[in-house]
Amino acid sequence: MLPARMNPQVQPECSGAGQGPGQLRNQQPQQQLQPPPPLQPTRKAVELVLVKKQNGVQCVLAPRGGDSQPRETWGKKIDFLLSVIGFAVDLANVWRFPYLCYKNGGGAFLIPYTLFLIIAGMPLFYMELALGQYNREGAATVWKICPFFKGVGYAVILIALYVGFYYNVIIAWSLYYLFSSFTLNLPWTNCDHPWNSPNCTDSKFLNGSVLGNGTKYSKYKNTPAAEFYERGVLHLHESNGIHDIGMPQWQLSLCLMVVVIILFFSLWKGVKTSGKVVWITATLPYLVLFVLLIHGITLPGAYNGITAYLHIDFRRLKEATVWIDAATQIFYSLGAGFGVLIAFASYNKFDNNCYRDALLTSTINCVTSFISGFAIFSILGYMAHEHKVKIEDVATEGAGLVFILYPEAISTLAGSTFWAIVFFIMLLALGIDSSMGGMEAVITGLADDFQILKRHRKLFTFAVTFGTFLLALFCITKGGIYVLTLLDTFAAGTSILFAVLMEAIGVSWFYGVDRFSNDIQQMMGFKPGLYWRLCWKFVSPAFLLFVVVVSIINFKPLTYDDYVFPLWANCVGWGIALSSMVLVPAYIIYKFLSLRGSLKERLAYCITPENEHHLVAQRNVRQFKLQHWLAI
Fold first, then answer.
1. DSSP state letters, 177-197
2. Residue in 157, 42, 96 with CA at minimum distance from that of residue 440
3. What sections of the sequence does the record tag as coiled-coil (predicted)?
């Protein structure tokens, strides 16, 4: 028996529009069929499922909700590809991967990184694209395939919303730096500004002998660039800790407002508008990265930086931390689990080749991470050469790299204003399309679940974007960096790993790898190979379980430089993490208690796809048979 979905607006001639599935099954194939009446505007959309049999075709009509409008699709295939690439290629590709590669054995790090990409990253990426495209639903309603796991959808939507609170702030920083770059003398080049401290030291006078042994240049906080970031932008010196955050800063508030306005007008009409915005935001970073790379390799010391980046130390592969770093980086880099890939793929045409898309976009993402390392380390090599220090003294990751070290290096180049503008435009573009993806996951996920939100999508989009603006104000106060660090650590840490683990188990075990493979065959005409099915059923869940356990074991009390967060702040952080994770068991309990019948019947309805609930009444529950759990 091979089910095949059809587009709702392409309806076969069938006289059983008002009959139940049992009545339709009793009809003979030779029966004269009458054309259905024309669709009325208020008529509920239907999903047509054709089940091929030897003696004919069985037609089953299943209500899909109250929205009679067909689901919109991407204007062009390239819109979808650029959206996925734009979401996956974000700031972490620039500020995290190159440093991880450098500190974990250089070229040797590519071995575990590539291995985890092949056995876990790509299979999860492929699974989410196929899941969204086949069901044409957001992260919550896609779980009609196994209602027990709908809480996973709500969890990832909440996590995506949490990330939007602080990720937009990082984009606002980039915009503030961009505005500050429109001057002949960049504001982070000297100590003559009101925000500078008496200890500010011009970077031209800093070298290995001045810093002394054991002091890394990247950790020195009194350079003009470091003071511009922490005192001029963040005003961190005016806060004593997370208990003393103060009021929002008006300059950053305006920048945040601009970012939110850009996001709103990029998303308010759905993928028709966002698919055009990514033509700029997803391609511009590549152009800028190429220009920075070409210029960077011409600088003195660039060769030493690139050599340090590519050095190969196979001995590091004996260390567990290298494999842990590779596993976590490949997971966060591809962006599986945030509901974004499911939302994007749900707007594809039913027969789109999402297998090819998964391989292409995930490979581009990882290659971009590797190539960005050349642009970063050519500049770090130049800085080490200028200050007569070792590469390890200037190498760092995170905000310190893109908002302190890189701007400082740019300020010493000829035409520094141009290079600063170009660099921060790249950061702005990298952030915007990634944030667009997260917002789309929230909007699509909830709009598909609640039809009133779908009917008022523009108003709902405004509510989501403006809501993130209001909550993000906590992150642009004078102590906002502490709030941002808290959210960055807990909002999408262990919680997102747990959610994706549940997603992998729900699809591969409860729904079934064989049934999922049949869905893919209906879309693209071919069934996934044994390799993909084994990865989905065994390797990916094991990989995710490993990363979840490691993230818990390696947890350390939160710090920001020398500041140690109080115990209550760590408790708040875990509360934020648990607020999303608890939705998974909470919905399971709610779903189970909301149904009628015996315990076995309620369990059957919870783990059976919604379009097969009629089989529960017939006591034909696939999940109650050993064959289901052994199938691959």
1. HHHHTSSSS-TTS-S-STT--
2. 157
3. none
Q: Is 611 annotated for ligand binding? A: no
Give the pLDDT of residue 617: 84
Which DSSP state fits 125?
H
CA distance 99 to 188: 23
Which burial class, exposed, middle or buried, applies to 554 when counting CB atoms under 10 A from its CB (0-12, 13-18, 19+)? exposed
How far is Cα 381 from Cα 304, in angstroms, rounded to an integer? 6
Q: Which domains can be identified in the chain, with CATH numbers? A: 84-207+216-594 (1.20.1740.10), 595-631 (no CATH)
Contact yes or no for 397/58 (Cβ under 8 A): no
How, if at all, do strands 46-53 and 563-564 pair? unpaired
* pLDDT < 50 positions in the chain: 1-68, 209
Closest CA to 507 of 548, 551, 540, 530: 540
Q: CA-CA distance, 403 to 418, in Å (whole number)?
A: 16
Q: Tell whether pTM > 0.70.
A: yes
Q: How many Cβ atoms sit within 10 Å of the Cβ of residue 489?
A: 20
Give the residue from 424, 392, 430 showing the smallest Cα distance to 410.
424
Q: List, in sequence order, the alpha helices (H) in 412-493.
A: 416-449, 451-455, 457-472, 480-490
Question: Per the annotation, does 365 bind a ligand?
Answer: yes
